[in-house]
Amino acid sequence: MSNREPFQLKRPLLLWNTFLAVFSFFGFIRTAEKYKASFIKADFIYGTLISDNMVELGDTYFIVLKKKPLTFLHCYHHIVVLIGTIHGGAAHSAHGRFFITMNYFVHCIMYSYFAYTSYGWRPSRSMSMLVTTLQIAQMLIGITINSLVHQIKLYETAPCQQTMGHVYLGYFIYGSFAALFIHFYINAYYLSPRSKHRKTE
Length: 201
Known about the structure:
Its EC number is 2.3.1.199. Helices cover 73% and strands 0% of the residues. By secondary structure, it is mainly α.
């Protein structure tokens, strides 16, 4: 494998990223309905996201075949998100539904962007910055929602089934992702403006 030329995967990557964009779009629509009606069970929502996380591991397969470097952000993201999703499902995390719907929305845009770039088309700098900005905003909103749940858990008299363990895990996941994406944003768009933008998710 080390002596072989990298695979040329423009068309498979285009189809792969388009599939994930469409999957995320329908995932967003389906989970967003939760806020109009309450017939979607948490088991279904978490089940779809866990399935999505498993499928998205295919990103790594394409990176290896193309002989591109596996970044820390890429590996960390896939591992930690899968752990967080499984933990949230086991804890029946109510506020996790907000996170999941938000994640589908951002991933719909992100994988549409990847589908666009996977065939060799070059997006504008502002489009690349928009995708990373959405990812950072997702993390900051996640921290905010997690903080509100933490407040309810500590100070409100109303019952809250959310476990403190999952609250702390939420701080860790969203806080670390926010730091990593902000670091990527600064390096990619300000410190190294001419460098080739790396794929992040």
